[in-house]
Write a structure and sequence with these properties.
alpha+beta; Translation Initiation Factor IF3; 2 helices
Length: about 100
Amino acid sequence: MQVVTTETVPGHEIAETLGVARGNTVEARNVGRDLTQSLRNITGGELKAYSELLTGARDEALDRMVGDAQELGADAVVNVRLETSEVTKGGAEVIAYGTAVRLAE
């Protein structure tokens, strides 16, 4: 499965547009992370535990989007975008979406 942020897949022609493919996940912080990251916030520097949490959430959202595209019969997903939003205090949603397409042979 090709996944690109561009309108086309380089070297390929799009034969058919199948619709929007999407995947999302909602991740929450935990008390242990909050304590360690609060200390880091005071001293400065990257909040690595939160970076890792969001990296995992992005990967999960992309995997779910690819699964959705496969169910539509797609060879590729073009115009892929990622968005993050807070859905509750301490919880964020990450959504990946794009256009599922079938490539010409």
